[in-house]
Amino acid sequence: MPQKRKLFVKTYGCQMNVYDSERMESALGVSGYEATDTPDDADLILLNTCHIREKAAEKVYSELGRFKPLKADNPDLKIAVAGCVAQAEGEEIIRRQPMVDIVVGPQAYHRLPALEKSARAGEKVIDTDFPEEDKFDHLPRRAARGPRMRRAPTAFLTVQEGCDKFCAFCVVPYTRGMEVSRPPARILAEARDLVERGVVEITLLGQNVNAYHGAGEGGDWSLARLIRELAQVDGLERIRFTTSHPNDMQDDLIAAFGEVDKLMPYLHLPVQSGSDRILKAMNRKHTAESYIRLIERIRAARPDLLLSGDFIVGFPGETEADFQDTMALVETVKYGQAYSFKYSARPGTPAAELDEVSPVDKSDRLARLQALLTAQQRDAQDAMVGRDVSVLFERSGRLEGQLVGKSEYLHAVYANADPSSLGKVVTVRIMESGPNSLAGRVV
Ligand code: 5AD
Ligand code: SF4
Fold it and tell me: Do 371 and 239 share a domain, yes or no?
């Protein structure tokens, strides 16, 4: 047996990139690679990049600079840049960093083994085409074993990619392309396969996951229909999905929160701003009021739902009054968890043409918003004390005898438990609420 070549993968950004990296690892595994945890002994370094905010491309260039000595030591080392920076920058990457051998966009991963071969033959290869076919059909199933590929009890599963919403600040429609849904039959087959390998929780991924409309039996399936069907899979105990857009939150999906036991009571539903003026400028096509009404309807279906969101402060034209509208919305809605960002102009997006809010105002608003969101997050966590939650144990904790897992609300929970509980859903009574996690005891 010839010695296997070593592959080092570094993943930036969203959960979809985590999923994609895993699939690229499998694809290259078939081409004779095995994963390594360090770039030092790698024969192929793959950076799976993110372009969503701030200086993403610059970070990639500086990371690449650090690999220069490795390339000098090992002339056989090949370097690949994948992900949304690859899609956005294309050949510019090789122009600026000639040591890069492969540039591959998110829609071309199934061609990676062929690209690797060409790179080994000494070519520079760039593939940022958008194919018509389902790229996942051409990627091998995930490896069950191997040091980096040990199956955790949780897995991501991409069901939908791309977005047609064109929020004025966002690069996703340009880097990931138009919205495409995978057929339900393929998703169900992949889910069954994951469950056979020990997965008990699946998170369905999509940039606009609730716009899902895969062509299945009897016509297009909604996300709710897909979830109901997945809930029939024996051995699958928990279903989550992310990320959703308020305008695609259909009645059947809202109802599913109340009716499908396996669907976890957690929803990431970004609003971005609480000012109707800014929402309009952002091209969000909803208002603060319509969002608040929507949340009321979802909570009516599932009163214990833990709500998460995304916010942007300092979008061009945002005044202090607009920002106060965002604070007021947060006060009304109450989030259990949230992400908030300073607006960062992305080249090629409509908002990049507009005048920016001053950096001082952006920082100041972000600090105030984050203080409020952190306090709400803390309240939601503290409210768990004394309650019994269900925890899927994922790994051992720092202390002897401890296991860590996630509750149905996605809180990290520590408890003393037998290692045989790993990969199982167990009832835990919450005793304490710490800064970022809960501690409890198995009931
Ligand atoms: N600037 C700041 N935040 C952004 N996001 C997307 N694009 C930008 C940008 N240009 C945030 C949004 C989105 C999340 C994934 O990233 O809040 O929901
Ligand atoms: Fe970007 Fe989300 Fe808006 Fe689509 S809906 S353009 S992914 S922020």
Answer: yes
pLDDT by residue (tens digit) across 303-326? 999 999 999 999 999 999 999 999
pLDDT at position 144 = 46
Question: What is the secondary structure of 319-375 as a DSSP string?
Answer: -HHHHHHHHHHHHHH--SEEEEEE----TTSGGGGSPPPPHHHHHHHHHHHHHHHHH
Q: Which two tokens stand for residue 441?
A: 């005891």
From the CA of 236, how far away is ligand 2's center (Å)? 30
Return the axis-axis angle of helices 251-259 and 288-301, rounded to nearest 10°. 30
Ligand 1 proximity of 169 Cβ (cutoff 6 Å):
yes
Q: How many CB atoms lie within 10 A of CB 215?
A: 12
**How large a percentage of the chain has pLDDT more than 70?**
95
- Please tell me if the CB atom of residue 341 comes closer than 6 angstroms to any atom of ligand 1: yes
> Does some domain include residue 334?
yes
Domain of residue 31, CATH code: 3.40.50.12160
384 CB contacts (<8 Å, ≥6 apart)? 407, 409, 411, 430, 433, 438
- Tokens coding 347: 């080249």
Cβ of residue 160 lying under 6 Å from some atom of ligand 2: no
Residues 279, 396 share a domain: no
Q: Is 257 helix (H, G, I), strand (E, B) or coil?
A: helix
Q: Do 208 and 283 share a domain, yes or no?
A: yes
Domains contained in the chain, number: 3
Residues 339 and 414 in one domain: no
User: Residue 143 has what pLDDT?
Assistant: 53
211 and 354 belong to one structural domain: yes
Nearest CA to ligand 2 atom 3: 167
Name the amino acid, one letter, at 78: K
Is 126 or 152 the better-scoring residue by pLDDT? 126
Enclosing H/E stretch for 377: helix 359-382
Predicted pLDDT at 134: 66
What are 129's two structure tokens?
């085409």
Does ligand 1 have an atom closer than 6 angstroms to the CB of 242?
no
Q: Is the CB of 266 under 6 A from ligand 1?
A: no
Do 349 and 227 sit in the same domain of this protein? yes
Is residue 397 one of the residues assigned to a domain?
yes
Q: What is the mean pLDDT of residues 215-233?
A: 96
Specify if 89 maps to a domain.
Answer: yes
Nearest of 312, 298, 310, 364 to residue 335 by alpha carbon = 310
Q: For residue 15, give its domain range.
A: 5-127
Nearest atom in ligand 2 to the alpha carbon of residue 171 is: 1
316 in any annotated domain: yes
Residues 103, 220 within the same domain: no
